[in-house]
Amino acid sequence: MAHDKKIIVGNWKMNLDVHEASLYLYQLSKLVKVHRDVEVVLAPTVLTLQSLSLQVNLRQFKLAAQNFYWRDHGFFTGEVSATQLRGIVQFGLVGHSERRHIFNETDKEVRNKVAAAIRNHIRPILCIGETAWERANNETHDVLHDQLIGGLSNITSEELDQVIIAYEPVWAIGDGQNANPDDVTKVVGMIRRQIEHLYGAAAAESIQILYGGSVTPDSAAAYFAIPGIDGLLIGGSSLDARAFNEIIEKAHKSSAETKKE
Ligand code: 13P
Questions:
Q1: CA of 239 to the centre of ligand 1 (A)
Q2: pLDDT, tens digit, for every residue of 119-141?
Q3: Does residue 3 have an active-site annotation?
């Protein structure tokens, strides 16, 4: 089943302070048109989420946390929980490769975070992807399999429709070397087959899958053309209002074209 809404997520990572983020949201809000077939989600640093949640027009943009802790409350100095983010964000990134590889986040933490998000009415965007080394050694299939099983093993079939999967090959993030759309087509097929194995054919068809990794306005359309890609997770280009808006417009155009077919 093709989804009628494309999801475009801008991951601002550790950029923009409170004032810059507010100004940037204002600039984006002037530029970005609301389209019924595109959901635009912004993932600023946690510091800015509360103030942006008061500023944002939720018809135009939803908000996502880039990370959170999986326990709801307690003695966890420096952490912010999904319970505390509830009502402020609608989405939460989980297991981004920068968290897995720089902060050594494990599949156990990832699975607890996916469950914490769902428990707190936040849609988890579970990020998975292979490193350059794993790719060169033909391990992509096994890595994605392990990350999917690792991330979803606390999740029931009923809860799965809240989950979004983001395929971000680690080697394609941040360095301009975006993945070949033919390769992404194969990987998305692989992910859907793995979901089918875990949750059945209907779930495999309906789960939303995003691609992320060095997407620019020039490369975006090729990913929207991939059957089974429901949107994009954008890093660098999401910090350039014109580029981000161009990607949103391309998402709208591709949804409109799919509807005509
Ligand atoms: P880039 O678009 O900068 O490669 O970042 C991708 C990413 O990590 C989004 O989460």
A1: 11
A2: 999 999 999 999 999 999 999 99
A3: no
